[in-house]
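Fold in tokens:
===
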Amino acid sequence: MDRLKKILRDRRFHRVAGVGLVLGLAALLWAWRMGVDLAMLKANWLRAEAFLRERPWWLFAGLVILPGLPVPTSALLILAGTVWRDRPVAACAICLVALALNMSWTYWLAARPGRGLVEKLLAAGTWRVPESPGGNHLRLLLVVRLTPGVPLFFQNYLLGFFRVPFGLYLPVSMACSGLIACGIVLSGAGVAGGNFAPAIAGVGLIVVGVVVVQILRQRLRGRS
């Protein structure tokens, strides 16, 4: 845990995060100067929705692959809710399966080839990649998953890189993310379909998920 804190406080980590923020702001500025506005975004969203309603496997593949990249997972979940608005419960199940697959492949990519490459690059020096503390795997998982503002793809790669046991990683990760994910899907389905029942249920799940996360954060702080 102390090693993770050192990494998060390291100036090099701050530089990488700063570069990412600058690139994101530059992309937004470029889009604005190219004439991208809300009307254009709405039109493109509707075209994408119509396209994916006829090709649902493309959406499922996107849900599995794209959250492993710097793509907002919440936007993909909202899109899934609007595309499958007539089957909100099935949409939640599909998204949970896709989320589990995404968490799995990103974990193993970081745990095997990713970590192996870093270890080879560091082999000539004295610094070595630290192992995660054996007795604190659950705590490490919860700290990473419950820290606000950390993108999902970065969480997955970080936990895989430190080789948190997969049998613990996946169920705990799904427990931390699944409730809010279903809430986002149901909210999108309800708003798109004009049906208040799934929208209200979705908002309720998001609120419950946020409350649970806050309680867990407070307990972690109390034990630190």
About this structure: The chain has a mean pLDDT of 82. The chain has two domains: 1-36, 41-223. Residues 88-122 form the longest helix (35 residues). The chain is about 80% helix and 0% strand.
